[in-house]
Amino acid sequence: TKTLKDAVAEIIPAKQEQLKKLKAEHGESKLGEIQLQHLLGGMRGLKVMLWEGSVLDSETGITFHGKSIPDSQKVLPTAADLGLNGNEILPESMLWLLLTGNVPSKEEVKNLSAELAAKGALPAHVEKIIDSFPKTLHPMTQFAAAVAALNHDSKFAAAYAKGIKKTEYWAPVLEDSIDLIAKLPAVAARIYYNVFGRGDGKQAIDSSLDLIGNYSKMIGYGDNQGMTDYLRLYIAIHGDHEGGNVSAHTAHLVGSALSDPYLSYSAALLGLAGPLHGLANQEVLGWALAMQEAVGENASDEQIKEYLWSTLKSGRVVPGYGHAVLRQPDPRFTALSKFCDTRPELRDSSIVQLVQKVSQVAPGVLKEHGKTKNPFPNVDAASGCVLYQYGLTEFTYYTVIFGISRAIGALPQLVADRYLGMPIERPKSMSMDSLEAFLKK
Ligand code: FAM
């Protein structure tokens, strides 16, 4: 049985060798062509980032080191594998896979869970900072600020100040990443308690539970098996979606300045807080409830169509639909829908049923509207209605749960960035005048 640190150390030489070979043999190979429309179009489709954990295919969706979501569900240790209640993948298992490319044993995941539980308590100064926020401050702003304040105890920042060698950066970056992932549930639960008055109020950690078993308990769902399992699945499969999305890209960019993992991930959370990215799950639920209010519980396809058109005609986007890369329904949406199908309390829920009905009607409407390149549901279309059905109705909190998840994907890449010796990121920008002058040449 290996520790996670040993497992990472073991893969580093081969990874470094692979990079060296790529550089030596293909340093000047072309990966595409940069056109002016790329510069003006959000750099869509340009292959300009290295990202080890996952690759997103526009047709088949996400794979984590080559494993699709159903593949991962087959091989990654679940709660039951650790002797706990529940059958979904544990985010700890996904974290191990993303960091090492290998499937961990049950024992390895159990040890990692225990390590996370042991490191999960918050330092007093961070509790104080969170307690000082007004209830009216958006939970995502509170989350990002608290994560930044955790850098007070950064092992990487301390080692850097002492002059650690570049080849050794990855080890304290990994340590900070594990510490941060361990503390995210308590940060998120304290915010939930302060803003909404729900949960145990103490963020008590049970050393026999997994990361998300503890989180569920802290926010008051310890006895709700359906919710606990849903949170495990959602957080595991939502962790990584290759590198170009705003949150992952931000963590990588800020980390490239050798800002420590807390600062890098705090910045990522601020990007996740935008409505075109992570905040979409909050937006979807507000939008779906407004529709339910407008058309009643048993909306017909015709009524849903009309509602979709009214959103589009008012110049807004339909939240939870479209994607910058995907051109098919999001496999994460499919996995969450399957979860709903297996549980009567979700199958019979009017809000879950409405969201599923919308997912059948909206693609036709969006195709007819003719703007979006992808008319299909993304993960955010499904994620909120399950939380709502289980009684977590405060939807300004939903993106915080996404924020716990994204750390599992963004932080492993920071570790890889450091053991691969990736440089500070610094693309070239142009003004319109300088572009015109360049294009005239
Ligand atoms: N409803 C209406 N119009 C849409 C649309 C939607 N769901 N998705 C895209 N469009 C429009 C888009 O606004 C753009 O219009 P303009 O030409 O007027 O600017 C046009 O279609 C072409 O956009 P695209 O190339 O298909 O999409 P982008 O790559 O520019 O943007 C998204 C991708 C995800 C930002 C976009 O589809 C969107 O705004 N979706 C709704 C918000 C959402 O669900 N975001 C969450 C994405 C999720 F996966 C995540 O990050 N968690």
- Tally the helices: 21
Major sheet details: 2 strands, antiparallel
As a percent range, the share of strand residues is under 5%
Backbone structural class? mainly alpha
Bound molecules: alpha-fluoro-amidocarboxymethyldethia coenzyme a complex
Order of helices and strands: HHEEHHHHHHHHHHHHHHHHHHH
Mean pLDDT: 96
Quick one: CATH superfamily of the largest domain?
Citrate Synthase, domain 1
Name the CATH class of the largest domain.
Answer: Mainly Alpha
- Trace the largest sheet across and list its strands: 1-2
Detail the topology: elements first, then pairings.
Blueprint lengths: L3 H23 L9 H5 L13 E4 L3 E4 L4 H7 L15 H10 L5 H13 L5 H9 L6 H11 L5 H7 L8 H27 L14 H8 L6 H13 L8 H11 L4 H12 L7 H16 L5 H13 L17 H11 L2 H4 L2 H20 L10 H10 L8 H22 L12 H9 L1
Antiparallel strand pairs: 1-2
Bound molecules: alpha-fluoro-amidocarboxymethyldethia coenzyme a complex (FAM).
Alpha-fluoro-amidocarboxymethyldethia coenzyme a complex (FAM) binds next to loops.
